[in-house]
Amino acid sequence: MFGTHFYHQRIRKAVASFGSLFNNIYVIRKNSSGDVISQVKAPLAYAPRMKYLERIQNQQNLNTDQKLAIKLPRLSFELTSLQYDSTRMVGKTNKFSAYDTDTNKKVFYAGVPYNLYFDLNLYAATQDDALQILEQIIPYFSPQYSLTIKPFEDYPNIKEDIPLTIVSTAFTDDFEGSVEQRRTIIYTLSFEMKAMFYGPIGNQSVIREVQNNYYLIDTNWDSDGITSTITITPDPSDVDPDSDYGFTTVKTDYIG
What is the pLDDT of residues 137-152, one digit of tens each? Predict the structure, then answer.
């Protein structure tokens, strides 16, 4: 069983889908008259929170330290863990199918449910910038948002809805020390994504002929008791499985 290579890129696609939700967020700054003076896009990257904190803290003093610090506002996210979800498990024999040719049917067995956990970090130098970003995210989750993805690259017609839920929020503000110290406001949103992991794709031939044998009573169902055979085939015999077609029925009698 093990050793058959397959790779559906489930975690890779999950990470890419999650990040794509937050890659177009802007912060608008206005003057006292309410006129827009600048518009800043919040960059997004896959990185641990501590990595950005270290970069931000490289410029501790705004008066004497002239090194280039990381620009704020900014967003980062990371996959923190994954966990098996027994509540969504279905029968292992459940399956669905798709055709890659007119005669070859692919079989996809039920996936194994796992929950993927992500942290999205919002970094800002002012509270207004942080709240602008926060309010552009939270209203879409009540508390769930559904992503539609294509789990199998070679079968784009197969689609899957992935629920994404905000499970917690956290807020930190290191507003301590002198006025010259750099301030960093951080909001952390934790998400749960309900994903499915699929095994190898199986092959199954298309059924193009069905036979039904009729027997005499009390013959123990052996070959001597057969009275007739009905054979059913599609018409035409080489029809596409997704087409509208009829059937040809042939009855063969063995007893006059």
Answer: 999 998 899 998 888 8
